[in-house]
Amino acid sequence: MRKLMGDMRDAESVAAASRLSLLQFVVFAVVGATGTLIHYAILLSLVELLGRSAMVGTIAGSIAGAVWNFFLNHRLTFKSQQQFHQTAPRFFLIAAVSLALNAGLMYLLVERFRVNYLIAQLAVTVFILCVNYISNALWTFNRSAK
């Protein structure tokens, strides 16, 4: 029985790994880059033009970028056949967790460690890109995920 359970876990690991591909990650990153441009445009506009805090700018930018990314990832990256109502709640839950993670890391880097807000945002963005790809590939757009 233990051998069977071990084999099943190995099969699940192989199946999960097959859902992650380099090409798909590159498309996800390109889609994310367009969302990041939207995010940064809003961040810069709010901070530099309107005098708002980096925290307000990054939260507003994250929300706009997430909406953009959902639609492009649904159609381009994952070529999902699932309805929006099936994938959107998962995608935006991941986006909400990412927003909290983004805000928390930005707070630590900018407010506590006095890192320039643009350098901090770049580092946080790279980290969140990897977390989001894995989460969306294995959960949001995975038909077999429960």
Q: How many beta-strand runs?
A: 0
- Per the principal axes of the C-alpha atoms, what is the gross shape? elongated
Average pLDDT taken over every residue: 89
Q: Count structural domains.
A: 1
Radius of gyration: 17 Å
Query: What is the oligomer described by this structure?
Result: single chain
- Taking the alpha carbons of the first and last residues, their distance comes to 25 Å
Organism: Collimonas arenae
Domain GtrA/DPMS transmembrane: 28-141
Subcellular location: Membrane
Pfam family, one: GtrA_DPMS_TM
Give structural notes.
Belongs to the GtrA family. InterPro entries: GtrA_CellWall_Glycosyl, GtrA_DPMS_TM. It holds the Pfam family GtrA_DPMS_TM. Its main location: membrane. With 146 residues, the protein is an all-alpha fold. It is built from five helices and no strands. The protein has one domain. Helix 2 packs antiparallel against helix 3. The longest helix is centred in the last third of the chain and has 29 residues. The radius of gyration is 17 Å and the shape is elongated. It starts with a helix and ends in a 6-residue tail after the last helix.
